[in-house]
Structure formats: C-alpha cells, structure tokens
C-alpha cells in the first residue's frame, strides 16, 4: 500500500528523532541546558568536598586552644573524615537507587552547609565533632556518587570530566587553606567566624541540584541501566519512550536496529545490559564490529567527538564487553533474538545483576591504593600546616604552604586523568607520584623551613594520587552499576584503611615531642601505596574477575 511503502522508506533517523522531540518538550535545547546545569552542579559540589577539612587544618592550633584538645584528641579529629567517609559512603549507592543520585548529592550539600554553620558554635569538643560528622556525611555520599554521575552522563568523556571535577576539588581545597587565616583575621581573629563562613559556599552548591531532585534525572546511574525513576518530567530525563510501569521508561518501537540517531544515543546509552549496546549501536550500515554515534558512517569509520579521543581505550573495552557479554551477536541481534532497541518480552527493563565485588583482585587493589593515598592526604591536610608552624614558619605562611600543596592538584588533576585514560597501564603514573611523595617527606624531615616551598610542591604532586584513583575506578568497570559498586567498595574500604593514620600521627607527635617519627611513618606508608597502585593500574575490569 502507498502509505505502508512511504512509512517503510521513511529514514529511521528522522522517525526516531521526531518521536523523541515529540516526547520531550524543548528537545535538544532542554538537553543542552540540563547538561550545563549538571556540569555546574558537579563543579560547585567538588569545590565543597574539602574546605571542611583544610579550613580546620589551617586553624587547628587555635581550635585546640579554644576547645582544650590534646594532641591525641586532635589526631582523633583528623581521623573523623575517613571514618565518616567509610561509614556513610557505603550507603550512597542504596540511597541513589531509592531517591536518585541528584537528590542524594543535593541533600549532601545541604548537610555540608548545616554542619559547617553549626560546628563553630556547638560548644565543646563533642558538639564540634558531631557537627563535623554531619558535614562529612554529606561529603561522603557525594564522594561516592560523583564518579557514578560522570560515568552515567558523560560515558565518552570519563577522563576529561573526572579531571574537571578533580580540578575543582583541588581548587576548593587550596582556597580554604589559603584564605581561612586571612579571613579570620579580617573578621576579628575569631576562629569560629573563620570556620563558619564556608557554609555559604555549600549553600550555593545546593541550588543546581534542585531540578534533579524533582525530576530525579541524574538519579538512576546507580540503579542500573534502563531505569529512569520519578514520575515528573525533570530536566534530567533523556530519550523517554512509552511508559512501562511506575518510575520506568523504555524506548518505544520507533527505534530499530542499526539506527545511529541521537535519539538512539541518548535513549540506549544506559541499557547496556539490556541490549548489549549502551550508547553505541551496531547496524548493518557500518558493518560488523563498527560503532556509530550519530549519523550513518562509512564502513570502518567511527563518528565521535574530538574531545572523546582521550577516552578511546575505555570505549573500546566497553564495546568489546557489550559484544561478548552484553548478549549481542555479530549480526546486530541479541542472543535471545531481540534486536537492539527492543525491550525484553514480559518486562519493562532488566536491572544489571550485582557483582560479587569482593572476588575481584582489582577491586581490592583499588581499595587498598585508595586507602593509602587517603591516609597520606588527610595527614597532609590535617597536620602539614602544624609541621611548618612548629618549624618557625608564621601561621599565615603555613596556610599558604598548605594551599600550594593543594593547588598543585588544579592543573594536574585535569592532566593526569586524561593521561591515564590514554595508557593501557596506569602503574607508571603511580610510581612517579610516589617518588615525589618520598622526596617531599625527606625534605620535611631534613629542612622543613629552609625548603618549605619545594616540599609543598612535591607533596602536592604526590596528592594527585586521588584523581588518579577516581579515574581508575571509572576505567576498571564497564557499566554504570559496576562503577557504582566499585566506587562504593573502593572508597568505603579505603577510608576504613585510612582511619588509623592521622590518629597515629597525633599520638606519635604528642609522645615523641617532635615530627621525626610521624614523618618516618608517612614515608613508610608510601612504599606499599606505590606497589598496590601499580597492581591496580593493570588493564583489567571487575566484571571479568567478579562474575555475575
């Protein structure tokens, strides 16, 4: 029939694009603004993930005098961050599945604001510790969910987006270390005012996430592919199709196999376990094994944005996984006979089964590496300014030295993740960072005041093991749910490992009366960090090791 023939000859790209635009008012414009708002939220959130810690480090001596803390209690205070990260970080994926990752991060920013506003005026050490724990609870859940959100929304730019997030995190860390003492002096010399002012930055970070609370658009990364939770249409919903049940939407029949349209890219990106494709399709137009990300391409070519080139090794690994384990055969169909873009019979969406993450050696290596680098980072943030002050450096200069250490992460946190995604093995980067750390500790032991600026720079380079660890979390798993599990496991286990470090430094400092033994401890911990990090950098994935 003429009508049927016309419909058959209608380009699938036009048909699916039109259907997508009809389903989502605003179309491309809405998606662009959603992405911009999400990037703003990620940057502002990252800026708030360390000021609660480094602002305290800059004023630790004043806080100790004001609250009557001993060196051991101060060591306990510097151990509270990893303790809270371990306890509350493990809850983040479950909260994200229930409420959406965007809503959880928004609540986390609100908790940071409340904790920072309350703790200077809580009255006494117990209240100070409790308010600090409230702020750190918000930091903990955001720490875990940031790599998940990056993987979910920017699957082809994991390295660059992780670099942007890590760069903002380092900037916030350095800013708090550098300006807390001068601002405290400007506000009359009250350490309460100097600590409480950072609540304002956390309030600003709440605002970009509010639309995602209503729509839960950024909230499904940890819940598994194919789920879009929430009934209201929010800015985070992409590629909606027919409704199949409360809180779930799948693509309708308008999108067929082999379509390289943008609707396919946005709609199928998070259904890797369902179709074996995710955000890439394999249609007959490109030939077996080729991938399309947009309009139809010639055989053997791949259409991708230039900025995605830095993450090509990860995309290749993900595509191989989807072809072999995601259920796709070489003819573009899944093993159960379905074509890409069609939902499984009798179900709206298939949730990815949980990995047995503790069976993965790579997961354990990442967890230990994360724990050891966190130990070094929190010892540095909590005690380095005090080391310089005890060596005769003025308080304001000691704060600037800590800021220099933190600010080194601004450029390097952007460069290192992009470099890591280009390498098949991230071990050499781990070793280079470790050597810088050993040199910095040696300088602190031999001449802390004479070469203070050089030691601050070297320790700042060594602290960039954190963005490297986050990048490896995104590279050692292929799917959004896999990254969520690995991120929660590595960070929670790692922060548990790091709890004794800052506390032990405080105890050694109090009982030895100097910094020789604490610095020797820090140097000794750098050796296993380098060894375990080298193992974690191997080109392996937890899906291969843990099984389903």
UniProtKB/TrEMBL annotation:
InterPro entries per UniProt: MFS, MFS_Cyanate_Porter, MFS_trans_sf
Transmembrane annotation, as ranges: 37-60, 72-92, 99-122, 128-150, 162-183, 195-213, 363-385, 397-416, 428-447, 453-474, 486-509, 515-536
Region: Disordered, residue numbers: 1-28, 218-350
Chain intervals with Gly residues compositional bias: 227-236
Pfam family, one: MFS_1
Listed Basic and acidic residues bias regions: 237-246, 309-321
Coiled coil start-end: none
Keywords annotated in UniProt: Membrane, Transmembrane, Transmembrane helix
Signal sequence segment: none
Protein name: MFS transporter
Organism: Streptomyces coeruleorubidus
